[in-house]
Amino acid sequence: MQRIRMSMSYFNQYGWDAEVVSVDPEYLDFPKDELLIESLPAATKIHYVKAFHKKWTSKIGLGSIALRALLFYLLKVNQLLKKQKFDLIYFSTTQFPICILGAYWKKRFNIPYVIDMQDPWHSDYYQDKPKAQQPPKYWFSYRINKYLEPLAMNHVDGLISVSADYINLLKHRYSRIRHIPQAIITFGAFQKDFDTAKKNQHLFKPLLSSDFINIVYIGRGGYDMHKAITPLIRGLKSGLTIDPLKFSRVRLHFIGTSYAAEGQGKQTILPLAKQYGVEDYVVEITDRISYFHTLVTLQNADALFIPGSDDPKYTASKIYPYLSANKITLAIFNSHSPAMDVLKEYGVKHSYHYDDPTLDHKVNLFLNEVSGKEIPEISYNASTVDKYSAKSMTLHQCSLFNQVLAATSN
């Protein structure tokens, strides 16, 4: 949703009128955030669809909002396409099963469709991992994704992705994708959101105490993040040993680390802290928080942390809120992650890969810097900030839409 929401302010400037079809928030597990809707242009047309209620579908083990809403998307969009002429359908969601409807609508209404690959859809990453490290219901999701992905990819007319690796994987699986329009487009930075967050911070429960030096990460956890997180925890352990008075004020916050329903998430970071004996200085909140609550918390942090997965294809597609907060930031990624290039372009001083033999020393320098008397103010490369703005990213999306129309009209 975030890509579409940020782009809605600019689509019209680049020759595209867009209408949105979305699940009614009543049926979502995610924290509700009324400010998201308020941040859309006033003229935005949103068509809400229902979903089968989870209190019934959970009885048969079905929680996925994509599967619960699939029928309702079909009915609503059928209705819209019968009434009105649309040029293109754009799927921008990580709820990928919805995308299989593109092939049906293309066949029935002769309308092309584009899929935005914000994450991998079908992935073998967890196949060789212990069951304890696999996501919930992995057996089911792996098989259904393996079945559904080809239904969408064998007919798609254009692809957008946050990572070249995601598209290259699809090209390997589906040779026809090599011949359709495609573009690597990251999420954009939308400074207006920070202004909105600042004006409305009184609406959100404070998660940080001013008594401490708060280093914050907000996003999913998981065992695949341990290679990136361990150096920071190890650095904190070292600091507490060398100068306990100075480093005892440091708190590492990991917030929203689980996709599970509220109160049901499994901690994956705090057990790591316990291994190093620093659990009293690490806070893990598995429950997710809303988007604007996230921005408020980033603004109130003293420093930020962005860890990457040990999967080399992983890109932290939503790093731009961190960079827009203008806080001193530590980022640790796989050396092959495309996020490293973006961080270097921005001029993030403390961006490292976790195989760096001098990483422990560099993390210690970061911790010493943020635990000092004055934390330095941060500003990033202005031309890079503009390059990765939501406005620029919307222009790239519209360019791909135009390519798709040109290719499918022949």
From TrEMBL:
Q: Which GO terms describe its molecular function?
A: glycosyltransferase activity
Which InterPro entries does UniProt cross-reference here?
Glyco_trans_4-like_N
- Where's the Glycosyltransferase subfamily 4-like N-terminal domain? 68-184
Query: One Pfam match, by short name?
Result: Glyco_transf_4
What name does the UniProt record give this protein?
Glycosyltransferase subfamily 4-like N-terminal domain-containing protein
